[in-house]
Amino acid sequence: MTHQEVTTHIRGRIKAAGIQARCSKYTACGVNYVRISTAKYEQSFTDEEQQILFTICQVNKLTGARGAQLQGHEITVHGGHLEYHA
After folding, report:
1. How far apart are CA 25 and CA 3, in angstroms?
2. Which of 4, 30, 35, 47 has the fewest CB atoms within 10 Å, i.e. the most exposed one?
3. Which tens digit of pLDDT belongs to each residue from 15-50?
4. What integer pLDDT is reported at residue 48 of this predicted model?
5. What is d(CA 41, CA 32) in angstroms, rounded to the nearest whole number?
6. Is the C-alpha dihedral spanning 7, 66, 37, 54 positive or negative?
7. Is the CB of residue 28 less than 8 Å from the CB of residue 2?
8. Distance of CA 61 to the CA centre of its chain
9. Is 61 exposed, middle or buried (0-12, 13-18, 19+ CB in 10 A)?
10. How many other C-beta atoms are found inside a 10 Å radius of the C-beta of residue 12?
11. How many CB atoms lie within 10 A of CB 50?
12. Contact 33, 25 (CB under 8 A)
């Protein structure tokens, strides 16, 4: 899957889970990132929503910094910035 396709897929999975979140892609220093954030500024994710987002990211093979395996703390109450390696 391309960077665009995986971002679109993750956006769909988040919507299907009933979580209000923004999902966008960007490239910095040649690395593809997927950003997941809350839909509103002062909103935060519940523990259950964080766990669902973490699972979605693991299934879609997103990684932490420099390709490191995701840890539970990578998805915070405000979201996270995760790497995608095609």
Report:
1. 7
2. 30
3. 999 999 999 999 999 899 999 999 888 889 999 999
4. 92
5. 24
6. positive
7. no
8. 10
9. middle
10. 12
11. 20
12. yes
State both tokens at 70: 């995701």
Q: What phi and psi, each to the nearest 5 degrees, are found at residue 79?
A: 115, -150
- Is there a contact between 82 and 74 (Cβ–Cβ < 8 Å)? yes
* Tokens linked to 86: 């095609």
Task: Report the run of H or E that residue 34 belongs to, with start and end.
Answer: strand 31-38
Report DSSP state, residue 33.
Answer: E
User: Coil, strand, or helix at residue 38?
Assistant: strand
Please, are residues 79 and 36 in contact by the beta-carbon 8 Å criterion?
yes
For 31, half-sphere exposure in the C-beta direction (CA atoms, 13 angstrom radius) is 15
Take residue 50 and report the two structure tokens written for it. Answer: 């964080």
69 backbone dihedrals φ, ψ, rounded to 5°: -60, 145
